[in-house]
Amino acid sequence: MNRKLNILIGAVVVLLFLVTSAVYIVDEREKALVLQFGKVKAVKEDPGLAFKIPLIQQVVKYDDRILSLETRPLEVTPLDDRRLVVDAFARWRITDVVQFRKAVGDGGIPLAERRIERILNAEIREALGQVVSNAILSSDRKKLMERIRDKARQKAEALGVEIIDVRLKRTDLPAQNLEATFARMRAEREREAADQVARGQEAAQKIRAAADRTRVEIVSKAQKQAEIIRGEADAKRNAIFARAYGKDKEFFEFYRSLRAYEKALRASNSRLVMSPDSAFFNYLKSENGR
C-alpha cells in the first residue's frame, strides 16, 4: 500500500514538473525564442501563456523595449587636425529576434552592445573625419548625428536590431591639449581686454580734452561778459559821481573825505604818520566845516 502511494506521489510530482516545465509566460516587455538543441523552433512576441516540450526545448527571452547605450570616449581627428575626444549616446531595440539570436548567439544583449559600439565608433570616425572641428560644434552637428545614425542603422540590420537615435554627448579636446588651449584663450582674452582698455583710455582722454576746452571757453566767455558788465557798471558809477560832483562840489568833497576817514581810521589801523597841515585833515581841523 505504501509502495503504491509512493509511486503515485512520484508520478504526480513528475507530472507537475513536466507541466510546469512545459509552460512559460512572456511579459509584454519581452520577446521569446523556443530553442530545440540550439535551433529556433518558435517565436513568441505576443505577451501571454505559451507551451514548449519539457526537457527538450528551452526558452530564451530578450528585452523588447528601447535600450540605451553609452559609448566609451573615442579620440577622432577632423580635417583641421585638431584632435577631439567624443562620446556618443545611442538608443536601439531588437526588431528581428531570430536574426538577433543568430548574430550574437549566447552572448545576448552584452555582446550586441559591444558590436553596436564598434559600429558607432567606426561611423563617428568616418563622419567627423570629413569635416573641420568647428562644424562639429556648430549647427551642422545635428546633420552629422543623423548621418552617423543612418549609416549605423544600415550596418546594425545584420544584428537584427534598429538604431533609433544617436547623439554626440561630448566633444572635448584631449586632456594634454586642454591647458595649451586654455592658455591661448586666456592670452586672446587678455589681448582683447588690453585693446578695450586702450580704446577706453583714448576715448576718455578725448572726452576730458573736449571738456577742458569747453570749460576754458565757458570761463573765458564768462570773464569777458563779467569785464563788460563791470566796465559798464564802473562807467555808470563814474557818471553818477560826476553828476553828483557837478551839482554840489563842496558836499561831494566832504563826502569823499568822510569815506577816506572811515577807511583810514579803523580799530586795527588807527595810527597815521603825516604832516598836521596835510589836506587829509581839512574837514577835521576846520571849525566851519571848510
Protein described:
By secondary structure, the protein is an alpha+beta fold. Among the domains are: 2-62, no CATH class; 67-172, Tetrahydropterin Synthase, Chain A (2-Layer Sandwich), CATH 3.30.479.30; 259-290, no CATH class. 57% of the residues lie in helices and 20% in strands. It has 8 helices and 9 strands. It has helices at 2-22, 97-104, 108-128, 133-137, 141-156, 175-247, 249-264, 282-285; strands spanning 23-26, 30-36, 39-44, 48-51, 57-63, 67-70, 74-76, 84-94, 161-172. The strands form 3 sheets. Strands 6, 7, 8 and 9 form a 4-stranded antiparallel β-sheet that branches. Strand 7 (74-76) and strand 8 (84-94) form a beta hairpin. It is rod-shaped. The relative contact order is 0.07.
